[in-house]
């Protein structure tokens, strides 16, 4: 059992426990699209 240095350097992503990038972009773009659709002159 001498392989503790194998799994250590593989996780180098600065993830702070928040939502993923896809859900973040959806959270930002969805209200913007809704606002554009609501403010569009009919």
Task: Give your account of this protein's structure.
- The protein is mainly α.
- Helices cover 45% and strands 0% of the residues.
- The chain has one helix and no strands.
- The chain has one helix spanning 21-39.
- The chain is rod-shaped and about 70 Å long.
- The termini are far apart.
- The mean pLDDT is 76.
Global Rg: 20 Å
Number of helices: 1
> In percent terms, what proportion of residues is strand?
under 5%
**Global mean pLDDT:** 76
Residue ranges: pLDDT <50 for 5 or more in a row? none
* Through-space gap between termini: 70 Å
Order of helices and strands: H
- Number of DSSP E strands: 0
Principal-axis shape equals: rod-shaped
Largest sheet: none
Structural class: mainly alpha
What's the helical proportion of residues? Answer: 40-55%
Briefly say what this structure is.
The protein is mainly α. The chain contains 1 helix and no strands.
Comma- or semicolon-separated keywords:
rod-shaped
Question: How are the secondary structure elements laid out?
Answer:
Elements: H1 21-39
């Amino acid at each position: 059992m001498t392989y503790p240095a194998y799994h250590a350097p593989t996780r180098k992503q600065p993830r702070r426990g928040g939502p993923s990038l896809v859900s973040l972009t959806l959270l930002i773009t969805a209200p913007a699209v809704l606002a554009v659709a609501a403010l569009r002159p009919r």
